[in-house]
Amino acid sequence: MKYKKLLLLAGAFIACSLASLDGHAQITLSPADTTVCPGTQYDIKGSFSSDFGDITTDDVFGSVVNIGFNFIFYGQTYNKCVISANNFISFDTSLASTPANPYSYSNWVYDGAKNSSQLDNVIMFPFQDVNMGLNQGTISYQTMGAAPHRIFIVEFCHCPLFSCTNELVTNQVILYEGTNIIEMHITDNPSCPGWNGGTAVEGLRHNSLQDLVPGRDAPNLPWSATNDARRFTPNGTGSYIIDSIPYNPIPIIPGAKASNITWYEEGNPYPIATDSVIHVTASQNIHYYVATITGQNGCTGTNDITFRDTSWVHFGTKYDTVNVSICEGESYNFLGRHVYQAGQYDTLFSSAMGCDSFITLNLTVNPLPDVSMKQARSLDLCSGDSVRIGIDHPENGTNYQWTKDGSDLPGETDPSIMIHGGGTYVLNATTSYGCQASTDPVTITGRDKPEAKIAPLTNEVICAYDTLQLSAQNPQSGYSYTWEPAKPFRSETGNQGDKVTGVFLQPTEISLTVYNQFGCNNSDTAFVQTKPCCEVFMPTAFTPNGDGTNDYFKPDLQPGQVLVSMKVYNRLGQLVYNGNTNKTGWDGRFNNGTPAATDTYMYLIEYTCADGKLYHKKGDINLIR
Questions:
Q1: Which residues pair with 466 in a beta bridge?
Q2: Beta bridge partners of residue 344, listed in sequence order
Q3: Is residue 489 over pLDDT 80?
Q4: Are 472 and 480 in contact, with CB atoms under 8 Å apart?
Q5: What is the number of other CB atoms lying within 10 angstroms of the CB of residue 460?
Q6: In which element (H, E) is residue 450 found?
Q7: Are 209 and 228 in contact (CB under 8 A)?
Q8: I need a surface site. Which of 140, 273, 293, 616 has the fewest CB within 10 A?
């Protein structure tokens, strides 16, 4: 088993730009084509970028770098990526090294890298165990062209394989703007079967989707290639068409900058300046200026190569029309005038040299993307909940990218987003005209849910129609407490509060819902068990003397109990009273109104309880006068 110590050289990461090679746009010039009068002074500016990205540590990922524009990969739009020292590019920026984690590990075993999700969103040209820790070989990149036809190149140059250190890898991947085509040009890819099974996998992977070159599509399958090239053309959003194409890597001038541009003018074989900007005076004898950058031909050779572009000058007595598009809020410098409203502008130039030019500007002002949103800019989010935010009026053809706390969220390119946690969220929108706008920040604050717990019940079973007090355990000030169902509590305290009292007629499941000051809630349930309590209390004596106290003999009924009948007999078994529920009880008189004598009498009652059953009770009652 191989052991690798991780050391990362800071800054050794590859920026991914996408471009298209054009012989007349190798250096971006502004203006590339202009109309002026002879004698007019103006500036020509050149833009060019290339750089080294030496990774001198084995098995690491680089830091996040900007692509510079949108590149579509399996239907997803990206503008940032990272590179692995093991010969692949990833659009998953979470893999990148950071100042806090400067040695982000890149697995050198294909199955291990795949199973750990390191190959979920990658371009492998090809994936293989390259040893960049030997301080041998270089990784370079370079951007060429002008929008919307730019290319970006990443090149591994003479990089040794891990175990077969005499076997050097040289290959190149090219990403094309607009077409989203990917090309891989392999100058030399030797095989090292004695290490890692000779694994070298060439192709693309995006989660469960993959397009791999046949014969180079599995680990432990040795192969080699020289002067070989493949093109991957998008076939919808779920696959690519793989073609063999002529081997034709694009030369790279490592380390060149715009300040290295050398300028020439028409008719003069000698340079007139070396800088990113030159100041010129228009002359009738000079119709163009040429910008060049010369340097060593990167990895593919030792000879020098030259990139060039031309800025053309037009002048004379003529009519010219300039069509310009800007974004709302911008202005255009029309020969010294800053204009910002759409329309047509005319300017007449005259000079001592006899140059009269009538120039018409047709200015188009393209609208900014609509990023209006109605929701509040500050929201509370309860733990475990989610909320969707988004703009009110999404527009077709507009590219969207959500950020959280200033960093792009990979894959979040819809006009709305489902949020599950706290942070500050912003949506950046770019129209097809390149006009950009951003929403106001929406700050989501995560809030904990309140505790909801019903205090243990004091009685396991209560009598039907009895009252019962319920309370929340550990109540908090400022919280709202609601008990359901509400009916048992209506006649007592109501169903709001951390402590309530209710009357329960039957077994009932109750729930407590607690709300905190942020609207977060939690619930708990308990079961109130009731039983019919049917025992009726009967007095043992009464004094029907008319003093208003204990003048009647009757049962003491509880809630839910209903008297059906009551009969009283004397010692001889004679019926002296026959009552029902419509009477107040026996007043100690016979049916003819004659007062009954002091004696002991027998009673028999019938009554019903909460369970609806008929019950009987008999006993003795002492009448005292």
A1: 504
A2: 362
A3: yes
A4: no
A5: 8
A6: none
A7: no
A8: 616
Helical segments of 448-607, H only:
487-490
DSSP state of 259: G
Residues in Cβ contact with 115 at an 8 Å cutoff, skipping those fewer than 6 apart? none
Residue 316 has pLDDT above 60, yes or no: no
Q: Could you tell me which of 234, 230, 226 has the C-alpha nearest to residue 213?
A: 230
CB 588 within 8 A of CB 600: no
Give DSSP secondary structure letters for 79-113.
Answer: EEEEEETTTEEES-GGGS--SSSS--B--SSHHHH
- CA distance linking residue 624 with residue 611, whole number of Å: 36
Q: What is the pTM of this model?
A: 0.47
Give the residue carrying structure tokens 């009554």.
607
State how far the Cα of 320 lies from the Cα of 361, in Å rounded to an integer: 9
The model's pLDDT over 422-438, given as tens digits with 9 standing for 90+, comes to 999 999 999 999 999 99
Long-range residue pairs from 317-321, CB within 8 A, at least 24 positions apart, any chain: 317/354, 317/355, 317/356, 317/357, 318/357, 318/358, 319/357, 319/358, 319/359, 319/360, 320/35, 320/357, 320/358, 320/359, 320/360, 321/359, 321/360, 321/361, 321/362
Flag whether pLDDT at 251 surpasses 70. yes
Of 376, 241, 333, residue with least CA distance to 42: 333
**Mean pLDDT, range 502-515, rounded to an integer:** 91
With 70 as the cut, is the pLDDT of residue 190 above it? yes
How many other C-beta atoms can be found within 10 angstroms of the C-beta atom of residue 81? 30
Let me know: does 14 contact 108? Beta carbons within 8 Å. Answer: no
- Using DSSP's 3-state secondary structure scheme, residue 6 falls into coil
Rounded to the nearest 10°, the torsion over CA 172, 178, 181, 182 is: 20
pLDDT for the residue numbered 70: 87
- Given a contact cutoff of 8 angstroms between Cβ atoms, the answer to whether 125 and 171 are in contact is yes
Structure tokens at 322: 């300039």
pLDDT at 347: 77
Choose among 261, 254, 253: nearest CA to 46.
Answer: 261
CB 432 within 8 A of CB 398: yes
- Residue 393: count of CB within 10 angstroms of its CB: 10
Torsion of CA 325, 326, 327, 331, to 10 degrees: -150
Chain centroid offset of residue 617 CA: 74
Residue 49 confidence (pLDDT) above 80: no
DSSP annotation of 258 = G
State the pLDDT confidence band at 464, using cuts at 50, 70 and 90.
Answer: confident
Average pLDDT over residues 470-493: 92
Length of the chain: 625
Q: Is there a contact between 502 and 468 (Cβ–Cβ < 8 Å)?
A: yes
